[in-house]
């Protein structure tokens, strides 16, 4: 069914409602209208990396980890599993008349905000710092969730529109100031691309952007509906409309009725919150018309028709309960977790042989379930922590486990403070042949508006990009007493573990929040059962790097595209246990919208492996500043040892156009160079990998 047909059906149904009934349907908890056969419906559901907050479901690696796979087709498969399990749950809920929160088919995912600053606590929910990668993976996740049938398998929603990435402590009153250039070059492309690809929903952000509250911004709404032709539904973020009148918010109107009027007239169809309880008051005060309410009601009911809610025979009702967190889905989950692992350093210790030896698994995340899940998570039927995974895979070894330190020193540890943890961690390390340090963060430290502020965090955002002090002390102490140290970093962002540990550790793995089976994936990488192929979707900065002010939304000095110094590890970087060679890169065809690039890839190592072929553009334009490099193509390829194959990569010309100061996207006036390889063509990547990318001059 096309959305236009669904809107016709919605208009016919809405036409039978009173104005009060129409208004009641614009709240996220929509009541039943029994006389019209309409059941109650709760719009609020989450599915960032699995069906969330509603019992058992497959818990995939968090979004930032999925981004590290650089594997669009894998992300679409993950989205398909999410919608399959959503239908499993929905089928059971409908059978039993359960229409509670988190029980519907409208998922407020993906979060396609740009992770412009690694200190942002909610960056773990995103696909990283790059507009192309975010757009590409966002589209694939949406395709997987919504499916390609006559009806939506489930509904996806691009959020948070727009220019939203902290600060968490001020989000209800914050004004993000961004230039036309930065908006069009960085903050808007993923929204434009996912909307034109058919996403069914868009969620507004809490903050103001350039002075206008995002959930009622004339500028943003004109772009969304007028320029891009969006045909889906628009929802506020939860209780964002209350910020319109609250003294602690934007305070741009005096009361709820005026807030409701401002939002619905701007184009906000659905209210996650309670402000739209005052829609009828606004109507009776002539602040809005019935047509305003009708338009919004048609938009939301069109989605419910697209989901097949009113069909005599509901689509996807035959998906059985046995598909929930089933063996097939767990296998995909493990593959996703393995692909998400980014090997930052390997001095030859990996792969580690399974033999009779002593392994110490040490750190606050060694046995942490929270560090597997991230946030916006469901609950899996099985969890494998890193300690569990090491025990399973290294079954010939003697494995000991110690916490070693608190994550953040917020609570006493008995009467002896933290020194008893530290001494036990050191003891385990000095008696081990290999120490696996499992460090990082969890959702109690970085996340959404946590309300906790201390020396390290502010309401979920980080104040520092190094390890917390307690973990730094543990890390350095373990490096003092154990020769063979492997560091595993579990976090939703990047962390500098410090000069001493970086130099001493023989291997460093960025494991993110890797999902329910993430500990097994870590152990499989360490043992060589899986070959790492993950790439950094974020820049890893040195701890003392002078990042711009966190509240500054200018892209100057931010991310690999505009960095003004050297990173520790660059965006797009990640090692393997084998070697790949690239040759004969060329443009083989061109259309108005794309180039097609081909390149020969050969696995010259001794083991099979998967490489993520990347295409970057460098272009200059006399009229504006252009990025250092811009990712514009990705293509995974798996090759056996010695195997060689040609791959073709589609390069979207949209991402190799210069963006002028007024926001116009134009062909650069001074030539384009494409770089094809396994990393971006910067000096640090070349040095760390030992080879440079293939070069194609276009003009």
Structure write-up:
With 699 residues, the protein is α/β, with parallel strands linked by helices. It folds into three domains: 320 residues, TIM Barrel; 226 residues, Rossmann fold (3-Layer(aba) Sandwich); 118 residues, Sandwich (Immunoglobulin-like). The chain contains 20 helices and 25 strands. Strands 9-16-15-12-10-11 form a six-stranded mixed beta sheet, with helices on both faces. It is globular and about 75 Å long. The relative contact order is 0.12. The model has no long low-confidence stretch (mean pLDDT 97).
Question: What is the structure about, briefly put?
Answer:
By secondary structure, the protein is of the alpha/beta class. It has 20 helices and 25 strands.
User: Could you give the count of β-strands?
Assistant: 25
The structural domain count equals 3
Estimated share of beta-strand residues: 15-25%
- Supply the CATH architecture of the largest domain: Alpha-Beta Barrel
Rounded mean pLDDT is: 97
* CATH class wording of the largest domain: Alpha Beta
> Could you give me the name of the CATH homologous superfamily of the largest domain?
Glycoside hydrolase, family 3, N-terminal domain
Low-confidence stretches: none
Task: Give the end-to-end Cα distance, rounded to a whole number of Å.
Answer: 44 Å
**Number of helix segments?**
20
Strand arrangement, largest sheet?
A: 9-16-15-12-10-11
Dominant shape: globular
Instruction: Enter the CATH topology name of the largest domain.
Output: TIM Barrel
């Amino acid at each position: 069914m096309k959305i236009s047909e669904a809107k016709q059906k919605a208009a016919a149904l809405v036409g039978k409602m009173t104005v009060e009934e129409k208004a009641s349907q614009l709240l996220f908890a929509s009541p039943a209208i029994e006389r019209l056969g309409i059941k109650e419906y709760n719009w609020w559901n989450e599915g960032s990396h699995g069906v969330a907050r509603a019992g058992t479901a497959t818990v995939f690696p968090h979004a930032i980890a999925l981004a590290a796979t650089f594997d669009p087709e894998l992300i679409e498969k993950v989205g398909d599993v999410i919608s399959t399990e959503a239908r499993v749950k929905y089928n059971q809920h409908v059978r039993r008349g359960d229409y509670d929160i988190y029980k519907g088919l409208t998922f407020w995912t993906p979060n396609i905000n740009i992770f412009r600053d690694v200190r942002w606590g909610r960056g773990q929910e995103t696909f990283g710092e790059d507009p192309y990668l975010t757009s590409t993976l966002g589209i694939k996740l949406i395709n997987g969730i919504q499916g390609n049938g006559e009806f939506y398998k489930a509904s996806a929603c691009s959020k948070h529109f727009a220019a939203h990435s902290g600060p968490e402590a001020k989000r209800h009153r914050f004004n993000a100031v961004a230039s036309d250039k930065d908006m069009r070059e960085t903050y808007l492309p993923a929204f434009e691309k996912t909307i034109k690809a058919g996403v069914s929903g868009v969620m507004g952000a809490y903050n103001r952007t350039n002075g206008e509250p995002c959930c009622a911004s004339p500028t943003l709404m004109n772009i969304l509906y007028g320029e891009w032709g969006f045909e889906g539904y628009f929802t506020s973020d939860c209780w964002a409309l209350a910020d319109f009148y609250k003294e602690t918010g934007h305070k741009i109107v005096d009361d709820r009725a005026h807030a409701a009027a401002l939002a619905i007239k701007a184009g906000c169809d659905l209210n996650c919150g309670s402000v739209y309880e005052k829609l009828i008051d606004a109507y009776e005060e002539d602040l809005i018309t019935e047509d305003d309410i009708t338009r919004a009601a048609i938009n939301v009911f069109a989605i419910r028709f697209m989901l097949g809610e009113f069909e005599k025979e509901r689509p996807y009702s035959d998906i059985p309960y046995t598909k929930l967190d089933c063996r097939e889905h767990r296998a995909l989950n493990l593959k996703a977790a393995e692909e998400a692992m980014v090997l930052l350093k390997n001095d030859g210790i990996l792969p580690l042989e399974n033999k009779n030896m002593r392994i110490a698994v040490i750190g606050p995340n060694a046995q942490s379930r929270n560090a597997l899940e991230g946030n916006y998570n469901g609950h899996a039927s099985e969890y494998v922590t890193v300690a569990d995974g090491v025990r399973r895979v290294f079954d010939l070894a003697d494995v000991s486990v110690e916490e070693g330190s608190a994550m953040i020193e917020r609570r006493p540890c008995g009467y002896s403070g933290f020194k008893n943890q530290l001494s036990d961690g050191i003891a385990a390390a000095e008696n081990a042949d290999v120490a696996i340090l499992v460090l990082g963060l969890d959702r109690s430290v970085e996340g959404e508006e946590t309300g906790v502020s201390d020396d390290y965090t502010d309401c979920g955002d980080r104040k520092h990009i190094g390890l917390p002090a307690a973990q730094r002390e543990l890390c350095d102490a373990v490096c003092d007493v154990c020769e063979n140290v492997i560091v595993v970093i579990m976090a939703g962002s990047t962390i500098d573990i410090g000069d001493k540990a970086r130099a001493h550790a023989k291997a460093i793995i960025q494991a993110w929040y890797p999902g329910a089976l993430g500990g097994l994936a870590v152990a499989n990488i360490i043992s060589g059962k899986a070959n790492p192929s993950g790439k950094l979707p974020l820049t890893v900065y040195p701890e003392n790097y002078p990042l711009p002010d966190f509240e500054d939304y200018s892209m100057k000095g931010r991310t690999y595209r505009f960095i003004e110094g050297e990173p520790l590890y660059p965006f797009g970087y990640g090692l393997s246990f084998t070697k790949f060679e690239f040759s004969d890169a060329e443009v083989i065809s061109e259309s108005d919208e794309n180039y097609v690039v081909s390149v020969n890839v050969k696995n010259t190592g001794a083991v099979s492996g998967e490489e993520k072929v990347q295409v970057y553009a460098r272009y200059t334009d006399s009229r504006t500043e252009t990025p250092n490099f811009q990712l514009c193509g990705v293509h995974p390829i798996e090759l056996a040892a010695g195997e060689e194959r040609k791959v073709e990569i589609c390069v979207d010309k949209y991402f190799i156009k210069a963006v002028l100061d007024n926001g116009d996207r134009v062909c650069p006036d001074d030539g384009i160079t494409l770089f094809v390889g396994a990393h971006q063509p910067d000096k640090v990547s070349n040095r760390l990998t030992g080879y440079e990318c293939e070069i194609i001059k276009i003009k």
